[in-house]
């Protein structure tokens, strides 16, 4: 008989594949959860399992070694929709070339895009520079520390604002991202499908280590990374799960190629650009228009260049 309580999910469906030594404690936790629900005792056990893995397997990420608001902001925007491994290859270089809000705010866009190449989703680079300019012009060079002011900055949504408050100031807040979602689906929704974030967020709030939220979220994220590597991805059971659209041949790839070409060859006509990329002029036209609208390019006569 199926249990409708999301905290006490049934055993239908396949068990996630995990290391055997870890599978048994997780199974015992689930059994206790079925019997008692999410009470202080089960919360402590859950936290213990997460922290035990974290203490043995912490990821050595450079943005975790700093409390500098600028550096943490850079990492958060870089990590949006981008794998940690790719960010690791750019983060230190970016910080070295643009060490703070002032330098980034003044940088020519072409210099910023040169460093950003390889991370994709170039709009984040523009958003980051716009944040730097806003911080310099409206906040005396200091990143605001209130949710309300953070949410007014370009490219910052609810998750990023909450993450910034937690990772910079160690303030307890409730937020969800892909690794955190994976952990809660694995522990609390055994046998379930189509799980909404609205069901997960109350559990995140109830199990939050309010005394040390920064380390707790680090631990959750690292456990989620382990789950993805060792078994079937629990996020496939999320109501919000979407397969990423193919990058090859997409307009996103083409816009990246256009920017890459213009970085190497500033000032080029649409016709010459189409020849260089071996693409139909109408395909180039569509993406040039979008890049102009987004603020990446400027046009003078028939010539295009980085803004």
Can you offer a commentary on this structure?
This protein is mainly alpha-helical and 307 residues long. It has 15 helices and 3 strands. Strands 1-3-2 form a 3-stranded antiparallel beta sheet. Helix 1 runs antiparallel to helix 2 and helix 3 runs antiparallel to helix 4. The longest helix has 18 residues. The N terminus is likely disordered.
Shape: globular
Q: Percent range for helical residues?
A: 55-70%
Counting helices, strands and paired strands, the structural category is mainly alpha
Rounded mean pLDDT is: 89
Task: Please sum up the structure shown.
The chain contains 15 helices and 3 strands.
Features:
15 helices, 307 residues, 3 domains, 3-stranded antiparallel β-sheet, mainly alpha, disordered N terminus
Fold topology:
Layout: H1 20-36, H2 40-56, H3 69-79, H4 84-97, H5 101-106, H6 109-116, H7 123-138, H8 147-151, H9 158-169, H10 178-188, H11 197-207, H12 213-230, H13 251-264, E1 268-269, H14 270-277, H15 281-294, E2 297-300, E3 303-306
Antiparallel strand pairs: 1-3, 2-3
Helix pairs in contact: 1-2, 2-12, 3-4, 3-9, 10-12, 13-15, 14-15
């Amino acid at each position: 008989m199926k249990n409708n309580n999301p905290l006490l999910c049934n055993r239908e469906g396949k068990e996630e594949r995990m290391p055997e030594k870890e599978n048994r404690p997780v199974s015992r936790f689930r059994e206790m959860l079925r019997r008692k629900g999410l009470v202080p005792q089960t919360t402590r056990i859950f936290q213990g399992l997460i922290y035990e893995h974290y203490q043995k397997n912490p990821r050595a990420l450079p943005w975790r070694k700093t409390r500098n608001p600028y550096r943490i902001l850079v990492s958060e925007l870089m990590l949006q929709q981008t794998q940690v491994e790719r960010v690791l290859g750019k983060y230190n270089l970016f910080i070295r070339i643009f060490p703070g809000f002032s330098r980034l705010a003044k940088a020519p866009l072409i210099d910023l895009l040169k460093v950003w190449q390889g991370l994709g989703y170039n709009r984040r680079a523009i958003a980051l520079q716009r944040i730097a300019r806003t911080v310099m012009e409206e906040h005396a060079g200091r990143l605001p520390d209130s949710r309300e002011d953070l949410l007014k900055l370009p490219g910052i949504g609810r998750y990023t604002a909450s993450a910034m408050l937690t990772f910079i100031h160690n303030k307890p807040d409730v937020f969800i991202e892909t690794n955190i979602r994976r952990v809660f689906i694995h522990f609390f929704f055994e046998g379930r499908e189509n799980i909404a974030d609205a069901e997960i967020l109350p559990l995140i709030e109830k199990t939050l280590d309010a005394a040390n939220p920064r380390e707790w979220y680090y631990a959750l994220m690292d456990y989620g990374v382990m789950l993805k590597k060792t078994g079937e991805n629990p996020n496939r059971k999320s109501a919000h799960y979407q397969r990423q659209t193919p990058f090859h041949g997409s307009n996103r790839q083409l816009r990246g190629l256009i920017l890459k070409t213009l970085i190497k060859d500033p000032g080029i006509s649409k016709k010459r650009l189409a020849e260089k990329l071996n693409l139909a002029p109408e395909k180039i036209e569509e993406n040039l228009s979008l890049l102009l609208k987004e603020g990446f390019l400027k046009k003078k006569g028939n010539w295009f260049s980085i803004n």
